[in-house]
């Protein structure tokens, strides 16, 4: 999925913003869940993007860990960018290794898309609005106002992560997928 998103996302206007066919997504999700072979290259890239966001939303406790939710939310309230980056790196160190590996690939994809935002209309802000709710959610439900404020803060964090991913994850993030 990520490889396809890396290949096609940068040249696709509105990637992650537009949804794939709900019926197709449901059918493919059932096939994937049953372990059947699925060739996503034959599907719309919007279906792949929708399936990927669904996958992220189904990670128990979220990929950024709901247990660290308060710490993630407070990162953007810290001083300068350098302090934010160091805080983010310390939080990443607290995540399970599998989460960190997946995060590197996710932000490699987002970075590639952002680099061609003039073509695809998906700058770091737009990407964050679309993908942030799939990366972290609070451990308990709350009022719509509190959830709205939370979503804004997490979107701001994901925008910062996307814009600074090379400094946070290392420059090799741009070559994780090799030459495609």
Automatic annotation (TrEMBL):
UniProt keyword annotation of Transmembrane helix present: no
One of the protein's GO biological processes: signal transduction
Coiled-coil stretches: none
KW Phosphoprotein (keyword) present: yes
Xref: SMART domains: RhoGAP
Residues in Rho-GAP domain copies: 1-169
Listed GO MF terms: GTPase activator activity
Superkingdom classification of source: Eukaryota
Pfam short name (any one): RhoGAP
Keywords: GTPase activation, Phosphoprotein
UniProt-recorded name of the protein: RHG20 protein
Organism of origin: Geococcyx californianus (Greater roadrunner)
Gene that this polypeptide is encoded by: Arhgap20_1
């Amino acid at each position: 999925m990520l490889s396809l998103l890396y290949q096609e996302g940068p040249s696709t206007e509105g990637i992650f913003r537009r949804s794939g066919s709900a019926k197709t997504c449901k059918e493919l999700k059932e096939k994937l869940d049953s372990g059947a072979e699925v060739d996503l290259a034959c599907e719309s890239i919007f279906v792949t993007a929708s399936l990927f966001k669904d996958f992220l939303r189904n990670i128990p406790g979220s990929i950024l860990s709901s247990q660290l939710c308060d710490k993630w939310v407070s990162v953007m309230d810290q001083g300068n960018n350098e302090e934010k980056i160091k805080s983010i790196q310390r939080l990443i160190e607290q995540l399970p290794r599998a989460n960190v590996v997946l995060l590197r690939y996710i932000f490699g994809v987002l970075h590639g898309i952002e680099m061609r935002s003039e073509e695809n209309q998906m700058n770091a802000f737009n990407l964050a609005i679309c993908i942030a709710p799939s990366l972290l959610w609070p451990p308990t439900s709350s009022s719509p106002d509190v959830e709205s404020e939370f979503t804004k803060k997490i979107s701001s964090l994901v925008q910062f992560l996307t814009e600074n991913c090379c400094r946070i994850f290392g420059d090799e993030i741009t070559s994780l997928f090799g030459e495609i």
